[in-house]
Amino acid sequence: MHINRLFEKIGILLVCLMGLIYSAQNITLIIAALIAVTVSSLAQVWAGRKAAWVLIACCAALCGIMPEMLNMMPLLMYDALWEKKPILLLPAAAFMIHPLNVSRICFAVVGFAVAIIMFSRVSKLEKKVDTLQQMRDDAAENNLALRDRNEAITLAQDSEIHIATLKERNRIAREIHDNVGHMLTRSLLQAGALIVINKDEDMKEPLESLKNTLDTAMTSIRSSVHDLYDDSIDLEKSIKDSIRTVDERFEVKLDMDTDSDMPGRIKLCILGVIKESLSNAVKHSNGDKILISVQEHPAFYRLLIQDNGSCTKISQTGIGLENMQERARSAGGVINFTPSPEGFRIFMTIPKKNNAD
Length: 357
Prior knowledge:
Blueprint: H1 2-23, H2 27-45, H3 50-62, H4 73-82, H5 102-197, H6 201-231, H7 235-244, E1 251-257, H8 264-284, E2 289-296, E3 300-307, H9 319-330, E4 334-340, E5 343-351
Parallel strand pairs: 1-2
Antiparallel strand pairs: 2-3, 3-5, 4-5
Helix pairs in contact: 1-4, 1-5, 2-3, 2-4, 3-4, 4-5, 5-6, 7-8, 8-9
């Protein structure tokens, strides 16, 4: 927009110079032109400042002692219109104390008309540009909001699909375990009974082969159920669900960095210790913050749970602590409890080599 104003000013300046050259033929025309151009430039640089208004008013007053300035008033009127202070040109009425020819007045009137027309055109153009820019900014903002909303919807849908998938895997695992697993177990028992009561040597080998086949099928079914059940446990979601049961009492921070392929028995061990520790914190801790950190390292899994309550010693090992110790031992891990004035700390490590699939 400043470029458009510059071009408009050049056009107005040409009109002013034509009137100035026609009306005056001495050094004063050069002085008037230089003064007007300088003040107009400063008025644009200092737009909105009182200094610009003072300069324009001084130039208008200068018409009283330098009639040639009247021909440059259209240029300054353009600036006064942008400042929304055309009243600044009232001192130009002082030119009436000098005898002026009609041509100077006519050129000045033409210049004023040109300045008003150009100002009206450019101001309307700027308003349209501002409107278009506002529309563009609003559209961009709406697009960003829509994108964020779509991403949130997509994440919610993905989460729902993931949860539904885990529930379906869990259901399938239960169905296989309850139906197929029990049927295979019964078949194995029947095959074993037939081997015991069989007296025909010709049937001994086929019955042993049948039992071995059923054993292989049972092992395969157990492995499939184990894999399905491992995949059906969303450790992070389960931990967050447990945290929600105490978030009115504690401010809980969860820090997780684990592989999604963690064995199911490790997930259950970690989840069980976390639930037990949260229950103990509600019962015994006088703090208000809990840190839960679950980290996976190359050789082991690490669980850290710490609150900011004051606990200098453990008076006796309760059922809760014994349950956590038993869970750690069942997974081949080690768990330690550390009381201190800064808080109660639970630290558990579980080696990976003892939990390989």
